[in-house]
Design a protein that fits this description.
Blueprint: E1 3-7, H1 13-24, E2 29-33, E3 47-53, H2 61-69, H3 71-74, E4 79-84, H4 89-99, H5 102-107, E5 110-113, E6 117-118, H6 125-135, E7 141-142, H7 146-160
Parallel strand pairs: 1-2, 1-3, 3-4, 4-5
Antiparallel strand pairs: 6-7
């Protein structure tokens, strides 16, 4: 089975998650960064994993466009979805549900909320100002969730082996 992880990352958390998943999933995985290349062919993939991050309550436009234009292809094969964001609990779940279309969420064999980071070394002045004002954070901070990535990977591995998942 061929698996592709398609992600879009602004400051690196979603990309970091993609590489962590590649290490933990028992299959060859191709990683595609939408930030660098918006053209993608999903036909050859047997499974697709989509990863996005939240900025001002929304995921990036290229990921939204991909989900809109390739929806039928995404619904034809196993799909998994993950989100990187600084919110936790119900607020993170709400952001996930508001940003991934319902048909894709319902079709997904695995979903994950992987936390995120405010990395001030990768932000411009405007971004730092917004984070300071809105989140009340004045230095780099991370809540990247390795346990959530591990659980997501275990679910994908179980699906690949034809085993039941929770």
């Amino acid at each position: 089975m061929s698996i592709i992880i398609v992600f879009q990352s602004k400051h690196g958390s979603t990309e970091k998650a993609a590489w962590e998943l590649q290490k933990r999933i028992d299959q060859d995985i191709y990683i595609h960064d939408l930030s660098k290349n918006k053209k993608i062919n999903l036909h050859k993939a047997d499974m697709v994993i989509l990863g996005a991050s939240i900025h001002a309550g929304k995921i990036q436009k290229r990921m939204r466009t991909l989900m809109e234009t390739k929806k039928d292809q995404l619904l034809e094969k196993p799909l998994a979805l993950y989100l990187c964001c600084m919110e936790t609990g119900e607020k993170a779940r709400e952001q996930f549900e508001n940003n991934f279309p319902q048909p894709l969420r319902e079709h997904a064999v695995a979903t994950g909320l992987f936390g995120g980071a405010f990395d001030f070394t990768k932000m411009n002045f405007f971004e730092k100002s917004i984070v300071k004002k809105v989140a009340g954070v004045s230095e780099s901070v991370s809540n990247f969730d390795e346990n959530a990535i591990e659980k997501f990977s275990q679910t994908i591995n179980a699906v690949l082996k034809g085993q039941p998942t929770d």
